[in-house]
Design brief:
This protein is an alpha+beta fold and about 210 residues long. It has helices at about 20-30, 75-85, 110-120, 125-130, 140-155, and strands spanning about 40-45, 50-60, 60-65, 65-70, 85-95, 100-110, 165-180, 190-195, 200-205.
Length: about 210
């Protein structure tokens, strides 16, 4: 019988006063542990009348301004965010027994910022963003492939422009919770709240 591996103590007194820096430290731990797809996060949105939906997206960058991801503005999440610009994010790294939960308001990146990122994507990814009306009904896989080949021919030998309906969003956090599994389900939970003038405070929650 193998011994359970020791779990690190999550002590709010030694956590960074800035939750963005603390998140980056945990994210670096996940990348350093070679956790597959450490940049995946669950993005939850809701309609104005509170109907929720959630999906996995990729974190592309994070700084003091927020957590950035890219998508089709006409997708369900894009429509949700247009009418209700608030979202929640969850990262889960089971190999480290860690979870991070984020809530905040959402805004679009500037067209220039989205252009810069779009130009850095692999060409086929650029072409697929032009091809796909994300989340809309299509009659068959063959039809999707046919459209993709048509877009490839259209831009053969030339740059692929970013579609106006595709770009980035930034989730500006108002709360960030760090969760660490412990024995007997007495898990550690420390939450940061952004107060007036952007000042963060942190408190411990019961599991």
């Amino acid at each position: 019988m193998t011994e359970p591996r020791p779990l690190p103590l999550l002590d709010e007194s030694i956590l960074d006063p800035d939750p963005i820096r603390q998140f980056k430290a945990w994210f670096d731990d996940a990348v350093g542990a070679k956790i597959p797809h450490a940049d995946t996060m669950v993005l939850a949105t809701a309609t104005p009348d509170g109907v929720p939906s959630a999906r996995v997206v990729l974190l592309k960058s994070v700084d003091e301004r927020g957590f950035v991801f890219y998508t089709n503005y006409r997708s369900r999440k894009g429509k949700d965010l247009e009418s209700n610009p608030h979202a929640a994010l969850t990262f889960f790294w089971p190999e480290l027994d860690r979870q991070v939960r984020i809530e905040g308001s959402v805004s679009r990146l500037t067209p220039t910022e989205s252009d810069v990122y779009f130009s850095s994507r692999p060409r086929d990814n650029q072409l697929s963003s032009v091809t796909s009306a994300q989340g809309q009904v299509i009659e068959s896989r063959e039809e999707l492939d046919r459209r993709f080949e048509g877009v490839k021919r259209l831009y053969d030998g030339g740059p692929v422009p970013r579609p106006a309906h595709w770009g980035g969003y930034s989730v500006q956090p108002v709360s960030i919770e760090f969760w660490q599994s412990r024995v007997a389900r007495l898990n550690d939970r420390v939450i940061y709240h952004r107060g007036k003038e952007g000042v963060w405070t942190k408190t411990r929650l019961q599991p």
